[in-house]
Hints:
- The protein has helices at 2-24, 32-39, 53-58, 72-78, 95-106, 118-124, and strands at 28-30, 46-49, 65-66, 87-90, 112-115.
- The longest helix is centred in the N-terminal third of the chain and has 23 residues, at 2-24.
- A five-stranded parallel beta sheet has the order 1-5-4-2-3.
- The chain contains six helices and five strands, in the order H-E-H-E-H-E-H-E-H-E-H.
- The protein has 134 residues and is an alpha/beta fold.
- The chain has a single domain (2-124), classed as Oxidized Rhodanese, domain 1, CATH 3.40.250.10.
- Strand 2 (46-49), helix 3 and strand 3 (65-66) form a beta-alpha-beta unit.
Amino acid sequence: MIFRARRVSCIFSALFLMLLVSVSGCAANITREELLRQMQTDAPVLIVDVRSQGEYDRDHIPGAVHIPFYSIGSGLRAQGYSKSDPVVLYCEHGPRSSIAGFSLYLSGHEKVYSLEGAMKAWRKNEFPIEVITK
Length: 134
């Protein structure tokens, strides 16, 4: 019985790892420096913070819009963005933006990017942030 439980556990672990690898491959990475340069142009890219509202309020990348990862497709449509518009996604560490990127990939979005290092690295490297005070 113990052998069978270990085998099932190994199978689920392998499946989870395969899913994680496939999800993270659906969005190209963009570096913090590349995103900062893009933000300073006349045609900045759409930046979407997919974290919770509280995390977004605490600090976010300047100009980023807040759309939770679980409603990324409908949130972009509601704000009038098309599937051909480039979009940069980020969360605190990376998993939520990977899930959001996978969702956009499955729905046909063409230019989806994930912020390398996520918000944690953006903050650590002292890149600009905005804070919402209530």
